[in-house]
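Hi support team,

I'm filing this because I wasn't sure whether my run with pyridoxal-5'-phosphate finished correctly. The job status page said complete, but I'd like someone to confirm that the output block is well-formed before I use it downstream. Pasting the exact inputs I used:
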Amino acid sequence: MDLGNGVAPVGAPVTSTSATTSVFASVPEAPQDPILGLNELFREDPSPHKVNLGVGAYRTDENRPYVLGVVKRIEQEMAADTATVHEYLPIEGWPEFRRLSAHLVFGADAPALREERVVTLQSLSGTGSLRVVAEFLAHFYRPGTVCCIPQPTWGNHKNIFPRAGLPVREYRYYDDANRGLDYDGMVEDLEAAPTGSIVVLHACAHNPTGADPDMQQWQGVLEVVRRRRHFPLFDCAYQGFASGSFERDAAAIRLFAAATPPLEMAVTQSFAKNMGLYGERVGALHVVCAEAAVTRAVMSQLKQVARAMYSSPPGHGAAIVTRVLRDPALFAEWETEVQVMSGRIMRMRRELHQALQENGTPGNWGHVLTQIGMFSFTGLSASQCLYLRERYYIYMTSNGRISMAGLTSDKVRYLADAMKDAVLHAGKDGGSGGMAPKI
Ligand SMILES: Cc1ncc(COP(=O)(O)O)c(C=O)c1O
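And here is everything the job wrote out:
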């Protein structure tokens, strides 16, 4: 595979141009990940005023990482349980975790589950699940297929698919001028994509724009996907986190999965955000097949991919999730906590919007209210973002994305006033839409 790093192919003589003894002397340094690089800069900043709005993890209104109460209790029980062992899990993960995580995404009575057409593999959170399905599709889906991703999208999509051997191509998604979904552009590009393309869709709370299709628009996307015989791949990283309702946030997936005749598709599911289990790497890959007869072979190949990549998934986080999903009382408690988290994010949107109105920041800021999920795509230019960082120690990605989950009540006014200053005094160049230089 060409990684574009200039490494000579296997078998070529190793030539050294310097006196160094390392065989890695010619390895070029890769660019830093824009988000992780931003966090590093933030950590090093000594200013007491600094605010991190680049972070993709929930923070409380006191700006602390949050361990859900229900998770804390289960962990205490697990620690006290002397029967706990640390054996390997099966390659495909725990059966109960797989079954219950599929129920959460599709609904327990989904026809595809009843008809046993869904293959579920426990994997390493959302990213690991995406990497496994990408490699599976690169081997077993149509040769030469392109993977269509939204413009803009979560940055890692552009790493994951090409690394697995799937070239990416962007479809229009966001309308900068109207600060919302470019539905017509999206449908037009999906219509024009090669027949049978893989189409990556954010199930809810699109990252980074916070702009989701409404149900009528999802119906339109479904129609074009079916007409063009595309393969939808739903990236579901925020179920429950967007609206506070697991059902509502899975509505697009359920619409596609219930289509008749059946549509083949895949869903990658993460429990990082909605259960606050970021570092535990809990997630699943679901492949919905047109007929039950093929599921056995599909599962066997997914296991081959996982076996060669990481052998078997981690157990601790999955044990926590399984306990929550299996017990109606714990599930209800979880749902309440998810509503508290999503509610705080929505409150930050309202407060920021109000503060921008009150201080008279030029421009229309209605999108801060209407966008959904963890992020707001502010429309601030790269220069304005840099201005905020240099003058106000406010850190955000250079495409103008701010994490509403990283904003706290005591910083709302500070941010709004800083934004006003940036809008009035910093350049508009760079714009949003991912064209801006990296941090
Ligand atoms: C759209 C999207 N997909 C997938 C992920 C993967 O998250 P994780 O691998 O932590 O589950 C993220 C995380 O930020 C995301 O925003």
